[in-house]
Amino acid sequence: MALVVSFSIFFRRQSGNTIPVSAKEGITASIPKKSIAVLPFENLSADQENSFFTDGMQDEILNDLAKIADLKVISRTSVMQYKTEAKRNLREIANTLGVAHVVEGSVQRDSNRVRVSAQLIDARTDAHL
Q: Mind listing the domains of the chain with CATH numbers?
């Protein structure tokens, strides 16, 4: 919940509405500054059956962010193609999805302990925010 509140405060402070981006066809597209995609979280648990829990964490963050009125949030269906363990290029993913920011993270569950790690990344600069 603290993560969602932090995102909310961050996005409310940003000024301007769009970021110009060069599309592959040479046409200039606009990406809203207040836009985000929550990528599938990585399951770091020894028991791979905990992947349902990892998916649930992503869903909760996604649903809470979707409640912010002026924030464009990409659907879960659109980001699930990035669930593979292959290397990800966040700039390319963000450009493909049309977002300025990306959330990525991991979940590790061991017995009754849970460790969730999430990062908010500015896709233009690949910098952690």
A: 35-128 (3.40.50.10610)
